[in-house]
Amino acid sequence: MNQLSGKVALVTGAGSGIGRANSQVMAARGATLIVNDLHEASAEETVGLITAAGGRAIACAGDVSNAAAIAEAIGRARRQVGEIDILVNNAGVASGRMAFEDIDEATVDRMFDINVKGAMFCTRVVLGAMKERKAGKIINTSSIMGMAAQRRGSHYAAAKAALIGLTKAWAKEFADWNIQVNAVAPGRVLTPMVAYMTDNDAYREDLRRNVPAKRQAKPEEIGYLVAFLASSEADYLTGQVISPNGGEVI
Ligand SMILES: NC(=O)c1ccc[n+]([C@@H]2O[C@H](COP(=O)([O-])OP(=O)(O)OC[C@H]3O[C@@H](n4cnc5c(N)ncnc54)[C@H](O)[C@@H]3O)[C@@H](O)[C@H]2O)c1
What we know:
The radius of gyration is 17 Å and the shape is globular. The chain has helices at about 15-30, 40-50, 65-80, 105-135, 155-175, 190-200, 200-210, 220-230; strands spanning about 10, 30-35, 55-60, 85-90, 135-140, 180-185, 240. The longest helix has 29 residues, at about 105-135. Helix 3 (about 65-80) packs parallel to helix 4 (about 105-135). Strands 3-2-1-4-5-6-7 form a 7-stranded parallel sheet, with helices on both faces. Helix content is about 50%, strand content about 15%. It has a single domain (about 10-240), classed as Rossmann fold (3-Layer(aba) Sandwich), CATH 3.40.50. With about 250 residues, it is of the alpha/beta class. The protein is built from 8 helices and 7 strands; from the N terminus they run E-H-E-H-E-H-E-H-E-H-E-H-H-H-E. Nicotinamide-adenine-dinucleotide binds near residues 15, 93 and 194.
């Protein structure tokens, strides 16, 4: 399967979890990966996994919430491997379950700075070249929590719903340049972000009761969807939100 050969893909927050899996799957399908993460060592680790499997990747350390720094880091990376065909805005943070009245301003700012403004900053960096070449794929990482109500996470829900808004607005706005924009909204995925709260009997019982698949997703199950959205097979798909969630929200 080489649907992505010749393409350059930037995945943010790719030093762990879903972003790492997205990068590995796209590299296995022929893309050259620019692996961004806040932590250089994590990005390098993902690069090592990709190159050990025969793929091509470079690390691009940087904080997506720092507009100037991330623009510079992405600029350096694309001078090395070429213009970016695929952007996966994946970097994100959660802050555990919190009652609304416990969510302070600093927590809200961090949530929006990284999850929402980070995606805006990275999109701004790659957009010009995509427009010039009249081609591009942008995939935003929302969440089931941006689609369906849950208790005690309204700041995360708001940030993830904002990404859905951006996805739909960008899909219309960038369509004249043949740029497709879609969102993935995963349900429960077993990654370091959530591992600390899922390895217990109460959580396993919750899965049995509320998730028809009765398990969490493996990160690569999100990666397969992202790789499809990044491919020409998805050229007619834009402005959509696809939720791999094991049937939890239908
Ligand atoms: N795990 C889940 O159940 C789940 C469900 C739905 C959506 N998501 C979303 O998927 C995305 C990936 O989550 P994950 O579970 O793989 O988390 P993770 O914590 O395993 O990975 C997130 C990565 O993003 C990096 N990162 C954090 N802040 C950054 C910044 N400012 N700049 C660059 N990189 C930064 C981290 O260093 C980390 O490597 C997030 O947007 C998350 O909200 C996760």
